[in-house]
User: What shape does this take?
Amino acid sequence: MARTTAQRLRGRLAAVTPGRAGRAAAVLAPAAVMTVLGLWGLDRGTMWRDEGATFQVARRSLPEIAHLLGTVDAVHGLYYLFMHAVLALHADEVTLRLPSVAAAAATASLTAAIGCRLARPRVGLWAGLLYAATPFVSHYAQEGRSYALVAAGAALATWLLLRAVEHGASGWWAGYGAVVGVTALLHEFAILLLAAHAVTLLVSRVSWPVWRGWGCAALAACILLAPLAVLSQGQSEQVSWLRTPGYEQAKALLYAFAGPGNLVLAVTLLLIAVGVLLPLPRTGPLPLHAVALPLAVVPPVLLYVASQQQPLFLDRYLLFCLAGVPLLAAAGAERLFGLLPWRGVAAAVGVAAVAGAFVWQLPFQERERLPSSRGDQPARVATAVGAVARPGDAVLFLPHYERRIALFYPRDFTGLKDLTLKRTAAASGTLFGEDVSSTELRTRLARLSPSERVWVVWDTNTVGTRWFRAQRAEYAKSRVLGAMYREESSVYVHGGAVSLYVRR
Assistant: This one.
């Protein structure tokens, strides 16, 4: 009797262990690949504007961060608090980006886990690798902002949804609601994930108990987000620079999610079409296409439509729903490669196809690691100041937000007198500090001796433009400077310049 029981146990282990090992490999391999890609070229030698905001705000004290969030950037409050703890360990650019690398690796792994649960291990493996190989993912995996963490939260919430639908226990629904709520606190547009999941449940025709559990969890997440939504509405001026989206913005999002190379885009769209038109048999709690298609489509469509009234459409705000694209493409690949004999051959062919897509788009991946990939290079501007200015010189920032460079890299500005600073950024609860009036600037310039030099750090993308002339305070400062001083020399870098001004 004991021998028979042992034989049965060995038989079950022999049958189960390979499957579990296959799922484990399918889930871990994409995380490993994403980690390698995330660490590749992580130190670009400069932070760009938004990363610098994270860096300088997160290094403030907790009361100073709270003061800031009452006036600006409330939508990033939870992320700033998280990064406050991270940068307390070691404050540099690599540490700033490491949480995003880890979050992207987790998202790749969760994408694979969802594919394994809804189909089979090789589908999960392909989906996770496709996610990791997407240049758009690499971009935000290497950026010190919250978007990679939001994507990880959305992927975890989707996985928890599958568990909750399958088991129906209140604990799973509570976990799901908590993860959705926290993810939305990292970036409030992630609440659109609930709409995608509602469509998933609708087309899957789930039972009433499932709807009840989901409804309670969704309501709890919305209640958790409500105070932030009210507070951020009063700070909407921060995104006033966004424009009503049209065809070009929709096209750019499509290329970001499924491209950006034309050949890869075409193949991905073909596989998605196969995955949608010939859906895989339902093997998990929900059909794969019913989970992946709403995830990839519903949040972008809702945000696009809403942005026709109040422009809020930006590709990075939607990174959290990209995982639906590789899941659909992997489902289509399963329909095609699944016809091949032997499981190992089919899996290898799929992995080779992903590797080929990565190699084909290698120039895009390399471009993401360049210092110029984010639009500006504050470190180069700071270095230019440090090379030419000497202690006792004066500095003036045009527009005032260029003071961010001194906040990001204060060492290069040591000993320089800020001509327009009224209150520091931390004291004023702002990102860049408060400036004096143009009248006070005239007084301060007049007090300088003829031998004292003035260095002007200015944004070449805005100074002199119609936008700059419309900013009365900024334009007035430039007029006062031009009336009393003249430009003698300039050093230009990508997106900025440092100019020496001497008294007329």
Strands lie at 394-398, 417-418, 421-423, 434-435, 454-459, 485-493, 496-503. The two ends are 104 Å apart (CA to CA). The longest strand covers residues 485-493.
